[in-house]
Amino acid sequence: MEKILVSACLLGIACRYDGKMKPNADVIRLGEKYELIPVCAEVLGGLPTPRPPAEIVKNRVFNCMGIEVTENYKKGAMAVLDIARKNRCKIAVLKSNSPSCGNKMVYDGTFTGTLVEGMGVLCRLLVDNEIKVLNEKEINEL
């Protein structure tokens, strides 16, 4: 069975910044066809759950208190890439709009809910390493 990376929050694991999860029944159902490898780059990067929300500003990540957390995001992304390589994952299904996982849009750094085109830190690293990234709304492409 092919293995794919999946944002842990989409599988019902409470690891989001707000301490919650975003279980997605369609993503969970992928487990019938694939072996799902749950990951959360932010937690793997050493950030707690819950944690202050963070957004990307000019390729750097800041939380809502103005504290830069870019290194945590990079560390977590590298840990996920290592997991992907060890499991020979070629596909990832990640949470849309996240500063780690967003594959098309991310929040603009103003903490006003404004989305702009862009990729999260983890998504960019996976794409740069030839791993296809989809968000939870795109899984019909599998």
What does the model show?
By secondary structure, this protein is α/β, with parallel strands linked by helices. The chain has one domain. The chain is built from 4 helices and 8 strands, in the order E-H-E-H-E-E-H-E-E-E-H-E. The protein has a 4-stranded parallel beta sheet, with helices on one face. A two-stranded antiparallel ribbon has the order 3-4. A hairpin with a 7-residue loop joins strand 6 and strand 7. Helix 3 (70-86) packs across helix 4 (121-128). The longest helix is centred in the middle third of the chain and has 17 residues, at 70-86.
Brief account:
The protein has one domain. 24% of the residues lie in helices and 23% in strands. The protein has helices spanning 25-29, 41-44, 70-86, 121-128; strands at residues 3-7, 35-39, 54-57, 60-63, 91-94, 105-107, 115-117, 132-135.
